[in-house]
Amino acid sequence: MRRVFFVMMLALMPAVVWGQKASELIYTDARELMLINQGFDNTELYYSRLPVDMKEVTRQAVWDLGLNSAGLAIRFSTDAKAIGAKWTLLNNFNMAHMAGTGIRGIDLYFLDENDTWHFIGTAQPNGKESSNLFVRNMSGQMRDYMAYLPLYDGVTCVEIGVDSSAVIGMPRSNLLTKGSRKPILFYGTSITQGGCASRPGMIYTSIISRERQQEVINLGFSGNARMDKSMAEIVARVDAEQYVLDCLPNCTTQILRDSAYYFITYLADKHPDKPIFMVENVIFSYTLVDVKSRNDLIEKNEYWRQLYKRLRKEGYRNLRYIPAKNLTGKDYEGSVDGAHQTDLGFFRMAKIFLRYLKK
């Protein structure tokens, strides 16, 4: 009986200890801190990704996905000994092949004395109105922090909690702050949006952002990166340092024939001096044996490659090309389902992209 009681107490301990700690913190509305990696100020929700004036001309599926907070992060500084978060989810969404901490959770990083970002912990979601702790028992040293918001859900409210003796405010370091340098913009699919990272900070846009100390705008739309004309206008509105188009998994060859030339030339004409990277369709592991899918993928990548050559001949010298070879590694072990990336897959993709991106 004593053993059963002990096991029950162990099972309950995280909820009791962490819940009490989170509830004892003093919370600050994250709108009083710094939001980074957002391409537009005129969004429908404070933590969404698309400009509200484009709502009527954007496909409904794209608009709804734009309400997800993928890639967005809160920058702040504090001398807290414990840090937590409270947040209200838009949908309290769930998927079988992706961890809830990636879909709906928030994870936290700190900046060390060598200007390197380190992961600390994840505030695990526990309902539509979630509350949880990132970390506790710290020394109380003043540090800079960054909290990444949910990937496949939206948030209507976010609060950052610290112990009662701590102060919290805007970041003290200028590294990776809003407007400190022009951002990189990624337009892409469910993979770009973050499917299926274990937590928000592990998607390739966020890895690249930390590595380069630069904002990266994530315009990933699960199943819907089809190079719509409205999206060409939205992407072109952002005055980015460079643009990356990683949208082929959502495009058939016919969609590319219908839309790719307009999309790319529109963007290139608006930003003739900015690098625009055309990324091939990543090689999905199941195409090793699925003959139809393999042939479709080969056809798409070949069309994409020929379009790149054509556009370069037409004078679009700012275009760059990223082939699919080794984009997720040589062993095909980087995905959860043959297509959507795990943390390993995202890490590998980020490393390849970093080789190509302009310094």
Considering the chains and any ligands shown, give keywords for the structure.
single chain, 359 residues, alpha/beta, Jelly Rolls, Rossmann fold, 2 domains, six-stranded antiparallel beta sheet, five-stranded parallel beta sheet, 9 helices, 15 strands, globular, disordered N terminus
CATH class of the largest domain: Alpha Beta
Spatial separation of the terminal alpha carbons? 64 Å
Compute the average pLDDT. Answer: 95
Q: Which ranges are low-confidence, i.e. pLDDT below 50, for 5 or more consecutive residues?
A: 1-20
What is the helix content?
25-40%
For CATH, the homologous superfamily of the largest domain is named as SGNH hydrolase
In short:
With 359 residues, the protein is of the alpha/beta class. It has nine helices and 15 strands.
Topology readout:
Elements: H1 2-24, E1 26-29, E2 34-36, H2 60-66, E3 73-78, E4 83-89, H3 100-103, E5 106-111, E6 117-123, E7 129-135, E8 143-148, E9 155-162, E10 168-169, E11 184-188, H4 190-193, H5 204-212, E12 216-220, H6 229-237, E13 242-246, H7 253-270, E14 276-279, H8 291-313, E15 319-322, H9 343-356
Parallel strand pairs: 11-12, 11-13, 13-14, 14-15
Antiparallel strand pairs: 1-9, 2-3, 3-8, 3-10, 4-7, 4-9, 5-6, 5-8
Helix pairs in contact: 5-9, 6-7, 7-8
